[in-house]
Amino acid sequence: MVRLAAVVWIGTIFTAIAVAHTLYAPREVVLWNWRRILLLGLSLPLAVGTQFSLVITIPAALAIMLYLAPARRAAAFAIWVASCAIAFVLLFASYSFRPGVFWEGIRHATLLGINWRVFARPGAYRQVLSHLGQMSPALALALPVAVITYVVWPRTRYFGNTAPLLVAGLCVLLGLATPHYPGFGFELIAVPFLFVFVAGVAADLLETPMRSLVIAFLVGLLGAYALWCLLELARVARA
What we know:
Helices cover 78% and strands 0% of the residues.
């Protein structure tokens, strides 16, 4: 279920990005986007249905759409409202259109369950970093390099790199603030966006005079990671 939630979250965010990009098309905005409106409307209840804490997807999608289409914010908001309406109908349908049952389900749902006290515990930060490192040691090594490059080199600070970094940062914070099941789900969701961020920064570095050095670093990192994966598979096979 956690993996499904991660896939749906990723799909919803990138669908919102795709919808926002089409707002610059010369055709009638809302009608031309009906397929994407429907797709966004389908992905939202899937996200909320798999993990109620993913209700954060709804405002996140709106924020991305408004940011990407500053000249078409009214249209972006209209598309978002239409998608939310479709999502509500589908979510209501999953309760057989029974208002009482639907309300009870929503009333007993744990949306986020944020524990603000964990931010004062150093162990919580170490645990999140440990989880990310266990999910991908290569990412744990490449991410600091990408973040430093992003901070010191203005060329990398465009939407293609900024958006996945912000989404991943939000997921990491939510993973830190919501321990146990919801938190692990957010940490898992953060990983693909961190990969997109690292890949974007790496692509920018490949266009510099340091191209050979960057290629050597990437080949070495990926080769070492592949070897590590094979060794882990062999260890599991022997267990």
